[in-house]
Amino acid sequence: MTAETGKLVIVVTRGIDSELSSVAFTIANGALSAGMKVSLFLTSTAIDLVRKGGQTMTQVAPLEPLAALISSFQDRGGVIWACPPCVASRGYRQSDLLDGVVVIGASAMFEEIRTGAATLSF
After folding, report:
1. Could you give the number of structural domains in the chain?
2. Residue 1 included in any domain
3. SUPFAM superfamilies recorded for this chain (predicted)?
4. For 64-100, how does the pLDDT look when each residue is reduced to its tens digit (9 = 90+)?
5. Residue 50 included in any domain
6. Is 97 part of a structural domain of the chain?
7. What's residue 55's pLDDT?
8. What are the phi and psi torsion angles at 34 (to 5°)?
9. Is the omega angle on the peptide bond into residue 84 within 30 degrees of 0, that is, cis?
10. Residue 33 parent element (H or E)
11. Which contacts of 33-36 are long-range, i.e. CB under 8 A and separated by 24 or more positions?
C-alpha cells in the first residue's frame, strides 16, 4: 500500500448474490475510519448494489446490512463510481441509481491509481 497518498481504490465485481459485496463495503468503511480517501469502482453485477432498492436485498450476518454499509460509506465521504457500459447493459439510467453514485469510466479509477492509490478487488 502506498502510505504517502492515503488513497484506496476498491474494484467490486460481485453483486447482491455474493457476500463479497458486503465485505467490500465493510473494508471500505474501515479504510475511511483509518483516515483514507476511498473510492469504489463497481462493474458487472456490482451495479445492482447501487440500483435503488438493490442494496436492501442482501445482508451477510454478522455484518451490517448492505444498505447501512453503503449509506455510511457515502455519508462519510466515500466515492462510488459505476461503470457506464455495465449500467447501460442492465437498462439502468442515472435516475435508477442511488444519489451520489457517479457513472464514469475507468479513467477516474486509473487517475487515482496513477497518483499512488492502493487497490483491492472483490
Report:
1. 1
2. no
3. DsrEFH-like (SSF75169)
4. 899 999 999 999 999 999 999 999 999 999 999 999 9
5. yes
6. yes
7. 86
8. -85, 5
9. no
10. helix 19-33
11. 35/6, 36/6, 36/7, 36/8
CATH number at residue 11: 3.40.1260.10
Residue 62 and residue 113 in contact, taking contact as beta carbons nearer than 8 Å: no
Distance CA 2, CA 11 (A): 17
Residue 113's domain comprises: 7-121
Our measurement of the distance from residue 12's CA atom to the centroid of its chain's CA atoms, rounded to an integer in Å, reads 6
Please state the φ and ψ torsions of residue 55, each to the nearest 5 degrees.
-70, -10
State yes or no: pLDDT of 121 exceeds 50.
Answer: yes
Asked whether residue 31 is domain-assigned, the answer is yes
φ, ψ for residue 49 (rounded to 5)? -65, -30
Is there a contact between 21 and 121 (Cβ–Cβ < 8 Å)? no
